[in-house]
Design brief:
By secondary structure, this protein is of the alpha/beta class. The protein has 3 domains: 167 residues, Flavodoxin domain (Rossmann fold), CATH 3.40.50.360; 134 residues, Rossmann fold, CATH 3.40.50; 64 residues, no CATH class. 43% of the residues lie in helices and 18% in strands. Strand 11 and strand 12 form a beta hairpin. Helix 1 packs across helix 9 and helix 10 crosses helix 11. The longest helix has 40 residues. The protein starts with a strand and ends with a helix. 20% of the residues are buried.
Amino acid sequence: MRILYIYCHPLPESFHAGIRAKALAALKEAGHQVDLLDLYAEKFDPVLSEDARRHYHDDSRNRVGLENYVARLTSAEVLILQFPTWCFGLPAMLKGFFDRMILPGVAFDLSDPAHAKPMLLNLKRIVGIVTYGRPRYMALWMCDPPRRIVKRYVRWFTGGRARADYHALYHLAAVLDRVKVTRRDVVVLHVRLLRRSGSGESDLEANQLFGGIEQYLFSQALALAEKRGKSIKLAVVPSNDLWDAVMRAAVSLKSSTIVLGRSIKLTVPEQAREIGLAWERLPDPRPPFNLEIFLPGGQREFYLLGPHAPHLTANEVNLIHQHWLRFSDQVSPEELHHHDVVHFALNEVDREMAGGGEAEVVRRLREHLQGNREKRQKPQQ
């Protein structure tokens, strides 16, 4: 896809520069056509001059001096916006870019002043990569303007058709706010992914393992912890596989809980499945873990890794009880317990599959799951 990557940060040694390098390499490897627009490097003028403001509504004159930027914006299929949050808002450079580039005849049609019409219909996807220097609750208290700009304002100019993803670093602050570090250690883990080779993982020198990205990431993590008067530990590990690295580190640290931010590539269930499969690849004995995945809005999804008692709904508990009532007298004088009903049902499933009926069992299970989903989606009367 044709990607316009708008980057806004003045420092070449910043954490954002590290993120940009990783993102550009991954996009190139995936075969995308990436047009990097570094606002500082290209010396973009963010000031809306008197003359530019005077002719702002004149389609024939409002883009003078901006022709190159207009062509890049209107030919892109994907818009990536990467920037830090300053004073709970956009950097002035990026704000000025919007002031000058969101023009009549370019981003929207004002031929009917009473009904503005979006014109950036070429954009199919918008991605925001944003860092914050304050915890999530403070961003929410200020109504999180950067998130609204990316997910609402910019998206409007696509006719609401573009998918808008917003990636921010919130979950460490949420953990620190609730954990008592006198009872539990908090370890911030960064996985340095290596390229696969025939010889497998190679040793790295310390300066290779702990580079600019790690330095900035850990400095931000330490700053968050210090503001809360709490201590954290830092760790970086090299690996060819992200999920295996996280799981091996959790085992080595004897962790009880693993906390992740939402993946930019996977859904939350897919992310949980990947780390669950990594748990299955651990050698015995495999310790159980709690898994928490933080969503951008601050919500959490909880999972248990390893064998564990299932969370049964009231209907499921009642179903087991009804079967227990029905069979108790029929199997007398044998003593029947509720767990016997569950054990027997599972053994019957095993027996049916062993007898060649696995496909039929899977068919009925799929129908059961589809029925449950339809019930959940059915509006309440």
